[in-house]
Amino acid sequence: MAEGRGSELGDALLDPVPVGDRPIARAALTQLDQAPAEIRTHSRRMVLLARGLAGDRPVDQALLVAACALHDLGLLADASHRWSRLGFPDRSAALLAELGDEYEIGRDRADPWCWAVARHLRPRGGADETLEAGLLRRAAWLDAVGIGSRTDRTVARGLRFPHSAPESLRLLLRVGGGCLRDLVR
Q1: How many domains does the structure of the chain reveal?
Q2: pTM over 0.70
Q3: Which of 11, 56, 65, 159 is the most buried (most CB within 10 A)?
């Protein structure tokens, strides 16, 4: 990554985050900057996808950024050692809960996103799926399986996306704007 590039991309992701809530989002992006490139780019694309999937629904932007940034960091060694008894999604959720406590984000705000991080690997949502869990799960799967593959329609249908695969591509391009090219480099 070029010098300063991570902070430029992080700043672009912070644009819709209210100023008072930026410290937790910025801290999560700082932790993400230490991760391998494939985790960094996947997580940043997830922010864009989750925002696009949210549409007009009210979403806590700071915690959306933090949850997307931290959702796979439980794979890394530091998190694995701190919570060795937990699977990686639960370790990632614990990282988000810890950051929420550090920045005095109320449990009423943080818990739905922690729950979403812990369940983001589920291929389908259940009856108990919250808005936050649905956004995170769908964004993770959409990014992980790719756009433009032959399986897009099947995956989109299985994940209950309201769009067909070509519409999902348009959604990604719309929410990504000009910074999408930077996110995949």
Answers
A1: 1
A2: yes
A3: 65
